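Hi support team,

I'm filing this because I wasn't sure whether my run with C2G finished correctly. The job status page said complete, but I'd like someone to confirm that the output block is well-formed before I use it downstream. Pasting the exact inputs I used:
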Amino acid sequence: MKKVITYGTFDLFHIGHLNMLKRARTLGDYLVVAVSTDEFNTGKHKQCVYPYSHRARIVEAIRFVDKVIPEKSWEQKVEDIINHSIDIFVIGNDWAGKFDFLKEYCEVVYLPRTKSISTTAIKSTVQNGKSIST
Ligand code: C2G
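And here is everything the job wrote out:
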């Protein structure tokens, strides 16, 4: 069984998140998603709309997500990869190169982001009373 892991905040869950999780899952047979805790997001200077418990439960409800764990620190990735016997680490190419040090432990794959959607864009779209285009 090929196990995949990915990390993220997944606030205001949107199609960009879904595309990433689906593509990550299709690289293997089992997908672990580490969702950033509220405390960790403070360190990322990210103020979430949804609290961790909501973000984790939404991700957990996705058919092709097999396990959700909390992301509490930048340093936990190596331990997660070892503890969960991960074969592939996947994340968006906005992080390209940042996690190459994990190549010692597993395959590292950076996938293109979904264009023209982001949590930030959603927030401003809602504030302006507009809607997201397809
Ligand atoms: N993503 C995407 N397309 C978008 C928006 C996000 O493919 N339009 C991907 C990101 O590249 C990332 C995942 O969805 O792989 C989650 O994105 P965020 O919730 O913004 O997570 P981030 O802040 O990048 O946290 O330790 C790593 C960090 O926790 C990653």
